[in-house]
Specification:
single chain, alpha/beta, three-stranded parallel β-sheet, two-stranded antiparallel ribbon
Length: 211
């Protein structure tokens, strides 16, 4: 299962605006700077500190150590403050666990996500946390899916993957993994990946599993 917008909602707009304000740059400039280094951050090629230093330089701001430290602290604070666990997540995971179903959390993310999953009670219900920043690969790359399958000791044909992003779902489908796209809100013009089933909640996934 994916994390962001699948298990938890996160107000990325608030995070971006507050980070930009602290950095002393325009929100759009901060967004563009983050996007430039997002893949490197998500795959562990850059630490958050290194990424923030590069973003600041790209925005014409001197990356003073005290400013970088403040941004790191604010980034963690905002992640925890603006993230909410969907109500159906813990019952869903508990139900899977009670039936002996192995669970891997597969997320494109940077630092602090493991800590967040522990704090929200998700990590204790998973057999493996497969976080892109730790394994060096990100969805939809085959490597991260294969790593998750190896951690669980299951084949692609015996697995089910749940994610909100059609592109990431397509990556799982390409490996022969049964895939469900969860849409918590509006579709926003996204076209579901071929070979996926679209649901609106995790109880619908349960119904698929148990018939």
């Amino acid at each position: 299962m994916d994390v962001y917008d699948t298990m938890v909602s996160c107000d990325f707009l608030v995070r971006r605006n507050e980070m930009a304000m602290l950095a002393g740059v325009e929100p759009q400039a901060w967004r563009e700077g983050y996007q430039r280094f997002e893949h490197m951050l998500n795959t562990g090629q850059l630490t958050k500190a290194e990424g923030f230093e590069r973003i600041l330089r790209g925005c014409g701001v001197e990356p003073r150590p005290d400013l970088v430290r403040a941004l790191l602290d604010k980034d963690r604070e905002l992640l925890f403050a603006t993230t909410r666990l969907y109500d159906d997540v813990l019952p869903f995971l508990t139900g899977l666990q009670s039936r002996g179903i192995k669970i891997a959390i597969v997320s494109n993310c940077g630092e602090y996500t493991r800590e967040l999953l522990v704090e929200r009670g998700v990590a204790a219900l998973a057999d493996a946390l497969v976080l892109s920043c730790e394994v060096g690969a990100a969805k939809p790359e085959a490597q991260i899916f294969r790593y998750a399958l190896e951690q669980l000791g299951v084949t692609a044909g015996a697995a089910l993957f749940v994610d909100d992003q059609p592109g990431y779902c397509a990556g799982a489908v390409a490996l022969g993994i049964s895939t469900v796209q969860i849409v918590r809100g509006e579709m926003d013009g996204l076209v579901p990946a071929a070979g996926t089933t679209v649901v609106r909640s995790l109880p619908e996934v349960e119904a698929m599993l148990w018939g």
